[in-house]
Structure formats: C-alpha cells, structure tokens
Amino acid sequence: MKFLRRYFGNPLLGVVDVREVRTIRGWARHARSAAPVTVDFFVDGKLAGSTRADRYRADLVSEVPHGRCAFEYTIPAESFDATEQTVEVRIRGAATPLANGRFAVRIDPPQHYEAMLRDILRDGLWALAGAVTNASLLLTGWYIAPSGRADHRITINDRPVALRPKHGAEDFKSPLPPEFKLHAFEGDTALDPREHELRISFGAGQPFHPLRDYHYPLFEAAMPEPQGRVRVAGHDSAFLFNLEGYSIARKLDALAQRYAGRPLAALGPVLDWGCGGGRTSRFLARNGVVLSGVDIDADNVRWCAQHIRGSFTTIRPEPPTAYADDFFGAIAGISVFTHLSQEYEALWLAELARIARPGALLFLSVLGRVAAARENLLEQLMSDGDGFVDAGRNPGIDAVTHGSAYYRNILHRPDYVARAWGKYFEIVSIEEGIVGNYQDLVVARKRGSSRAIRSR
After folding, report:
1. Which residue of 30, 48, 302, 408 has the smallest Cβ count within 10 Å?
2. In the 8-state DSSP scheme, what is residue 368?
3. In angstroms, rounded to a whole number, what is the distance separating the alpha carbons of residues 5 and 174?
4. Among 233, 293, 287, which Cα is nearest to 265's?
C-alpha cells in the first residue's frame, strides 16, 4: 500500500525544515525519478530565485539512498520591501508549496541594518583576551572605533599601553559600514605589585562606553576545574573566567549605585541565579554581599559551596525554588535567559518576581543587538515577528541536561523585553553589550516601594 500511495499519489515530495530570515533549507524530490528537482522561491507571487535540491544530508538517506535531495537558498534582499510579504517554496511545476513552504515575513532593506550597525557602534566596541605570566600582562583582542575617532589606545589604570597590530579577528561577523574598521591587536605591560586590580579601558583621551571597560583581579581567587569553567563560559581559559566574572561583579555594583543609590551589598540578600562555577559569585562574596546561588549543574554548585562564602543550592530546570516570597533585595541572572525557551522563560520570570522584594533590582542578561551584530544575526533578530528568536539547541551543558532540548540559543529584541518582561517588572534600563561586550544587561525592578530594598 505504501508503494501504491507513493506511485499514484503526488510524486513531488519535500519539506521546508529551517528558516533563517532570507535563508531557507529543506529537501525536495520526485518520487518516481532519481534526478534532482528544481525548487522555486516566490515572494508575493513573483519568482525571486531557484536552486537544485541536490545537496547531501545524512538524515535523508531514508528518503533516497544517496541522500542528495537537500537544498539551501538565500532569497535576495531586493525581493523584500519592508512590509509583510508571503513567501512560497515550490518544486518547479507543482501547484502547491512544500510542507511548511508558505509563510509570511517582514524584512527590511539592507540599508536599514547598516543604519542600525552605525547606532550600535556609535560608542565603539571591543573585545579582550589575554594571559598573566609572572609579572606581566599580555593582551590580545580587537576594536572598532567610533566614526571619526583617532584615539585608538588602551589604558590600564589610566596608563597607556602600546598596541601592536595583529593579523585577523573574526569575532565580528556583520559587514561593517564603510566608515568603520575592525582592528586586531596585541600588547603587553608590566604589572605593579602594589595594585590589586586592573581597569582596562579603550580610548585614552576619550574612552569608549565606560560600562564596556574590563576589570581584572590581581588578588587570589578560587578557580573551578576546567570542565566546570567550560560548562559556564564555553571555554576553559582561567584568565577569561576571572576577567569576565570580576568585570560583571564591578558592573553590578556600579548599576546598583546608579539605580538604587547604594552598592549591591546594601540592597539585602542577593541571589546569583545560574551561579555555575562561581564565575561572578566568587567576587560578589568578597564584596560583603549576603549571597545565595542556585544552578541546575550539581557539580558546579558543589564546588561553589566548598569555595565561596554563601548558600548554594542545586535546583531543577523548572521552578519553584525553596525561597520565601519577597526574599531577595537583588537578583543577578547572567547567561540564563540566553538559553531558555519562551515556556521556561515565562515560568522563571514569574518565579523571580515571587522571590524578589518589592523594589528589588534584577540584573538579567540577554543576547540582543550587540550579540546579533557580532554574529551577523541582526536581520534574523529584527525580522522575527515578536522579537524572541530561538536559534536552536545549545550542547554546552549536555553533561547536565543529558542532551535534551532544554538548553537553547536565544536572542531577545528590546521591544520584546519591554512587552513580555514588563508584565512582571518595571524595565528600568537595557544596557547594551556590557556583559563581555557581547550580552545586554536588562535592569528591572519589582514593582512596589523602593523603601523595601534594605539590608536584613
């Protein structure tokens, strides 16, 4: 019967299984022919382009023994006019589209994204890596200076550091507007034994965005094992683990001072939601914070409990936690909502609202416009209907989630945060690209009297 249905039914088969803005992937074939078919792409009924479905995909061997019936095509940008338009994907000669092959999109012209890049880069952008060896600091990285700026120098604790040009930097993937240029660099400097921390700024006379400065601790800090660091940060670099964690801790203090008029430690009990291996908790605890930390990674939580002053607890991927209502004066969640589906996001927003005091500040990172620009995903982020973009499963903590689909790669548009998160909190500010000069930091406040933020 299966043979008869295939033979006498519609012989044109196929599916659109991935859509990334203008790029469409899927498979298509003719049930009674081994020859590859041509797939046509229409925008509002007008042919925008075609491609042959002759790419190999291992999962398609069940469809055809050679597995060569996949396709991928990027519809030209000039086919779109910034209004909502209908795309259809059809095998040539077919009267109907492929499965999932008819959908509505709204895509802005290329100059829209170029203007957006100019806005993102108005204060410059840079990224840093390095190493501490003996009594010296080696720095490597890249920078994009603001348009018209000629002061391209790093300062460490206000002392200029000579930079040497370096070949290659592929961490910024979007095409740059012509007035901007990416520069890779390296440099080194001797360390002063009298200093206990470094503030690393770009632009000596007129610094870039001050919340994109880096901070590095020169004092001893406990360090988790490499595998624990990888599950938190995606790398095992001890230098970056300290650089990222200490920078975040310093910025949380600065933002608490800006929006509550006092340092983080004075806001009351603080929750590091998603504490991982203590990347940030190690430094929060040193600042006198009454600290609690939670994570789904039991091994990392165990390490934190053994090495950091505070209370650390393993939690399930879904709420609730064991904390009482209105308990925390501040909550930090770094690189958590960057990985949760909309369903889990809503559950955790409600739970954080339950355990935060009225007036409490929440510092929650997301992948926004800066991250999208660095990954050449601006078009995808801005074209998505509601501003929540699920870019697929992230395998980074498979050892914890056992390879489930729980851990995702998620991007958030600012208007989505204001609309969806605003149901739970007052959105005080979205500080773009200040976490690792990659993630945005959403500063939110639980509605209620600010007098409720107090030490216990």
Report:
1. 302
2. -
3. 47
4. 287
Evaluate whether 75 touches 41 at the Cβ level (below 8 Å).
yes
Radius of gyration (Cα) for the chain, nearest Å?
25
The domain 2-106: what is its CATH number? 2.60.40
Q: Which position has the token pair 């075609």?
A: 50
Burial of 455 (0-12, 13-18, 19+ CB in 10 A): exposed
Contact between 161 and 189 under an 8 Å Cβ cutoff? The reply is yes
Per-residue pLDDT of the chain (456 residues; tens, 9 = 90+): 344 344 446 799 999 998 888 999 999 999 999 899 999 999 999 999 999 999 999 999 988 889 999 999 999 988 998 888 999 999 999 999 999 999 988 888 888 899 999 999 999 999 999 999 888 999 999 999 998 877 678 899 999 888 898 877 778 999 999 999 999 999 999 999 999 999 999 876 667 888 999 999 999 999 999 999 999 888 999 999 999 999 999 999 999 999 999 999 999 999 999 999 999 999 999 999 999 999 999 999 999 999 999 999 999 999 999 999 999 999 999 999 999 999 999 999 999 999 999 999 999 999 999 999 999 999 989 887 789 998 877 667 666 766 667 778 899 999 999 999 999 999 999 999 999 999 999 999 999 854 433 333
**Which residue, 146, 142, 212, is CA-closest to 177?**
146
Q: Which of 248, 239, 217 is nearest to 141 (CA)?
A: 239
* Beta-sheet pairing, 439-445 with 426-435: antiparallel
Domain segments of the chain as ranges: 2-106, 115-217, 226-452
Rounded Cα gap, residues 428 and 362, in angstroms: 10
424, amino acid identity: Y
CB 213 within 8 A of CB 201: yes
Cα(444)–Cα(331) distance, integer angstroms: 10
Question: Is cis: bond before 65, omega within 30 of 0?
Answer: no
Homologous superfamily (CATH) of 226-452 is Vaccinia Virus protein VP39 (3.40.50.150)
